[in-house]
Design goal:
Helix content: 40-55%
Radius of gyration: 19 Å
Number of helices: 6
Structural class: alpha+beta
Distance between the termini: 41 Å
Order of helices and strands: HHEHEEHHEEH
Number of domains: 1
Strand order of the largest sheet: 1-2-3-5-4
Mean pLDDT: 87
Number of strands: 5
Length: about 160
């Protein structure tokens, strides 16, 4: 009886760990779809245009991140508005990407403090999130709406 109880406890613990581990991972999704939804379903003061990853890496240090796919939208530079959605090779890459995106926001705060201080409200409410192998940055006037869209993809 005692042996069966130990086996049952071990099985339950293993299943619990497996379920907890599965719940922590983000479901796969299309980064282009999320990028497009953020670009079209949220209002922006600026007109955002798509940018390729190589160009974006001139101002975001992703040198130690293996990016598989990216959807990047940037404004004219007169606002801090931007969207960056990254699919990375691994969860570790996504965590490094999240740190790079946080650094991007910090650098933008420094840049816009004297340039266009009104943009600090957006930057201070920027959404930076990673889940599974994905990392996202959204800077806009409606961070709650952006967060809701992002959360719909990054379950």
């Amino acid at each position: 009886m005692r042996k069966n109880m130990k086996i049952a406890v071990t099985v339950i613990a293993a299943l619990s760990a497996l379920l907890i581990g599965c719940g922590a991972k983000s479901a796969d999704f299309d980064v282009d779809a999320l990028g497009n939804d953020l670009a079209t379903k949220i209002e922006y003061a600026d007109e955002l245009g798509q940018m390729d990853l190589d160009t974006a890496q001139m101002f975001i240090n992703l040198s130690d991140v293996n990016v598989v796919k990216a959807a990047i939208y940037e404004g004219s530079g007169g606002t801090a508005e931007e969207i960056i959605v990254l699919e990375c090779a691994t969860e570790d890459d996504a965590k490094r990407a999240e740190e790079a995106l946080k650094t991007r926001v910090s650098e933008q705060i420094e840049s816009f403090t004297d340039y266009v201080p009104e943009e600090l409200t957006k930057l201070n409410a920027a959404i930076v999130k990673s889940s599974g192998k994905y990392a996202v940055l959204s800077v806009c006037d409606t961070p709650d709406a952006a967060k809701s869209l992002i959360d719909g993809y990054m379950k």
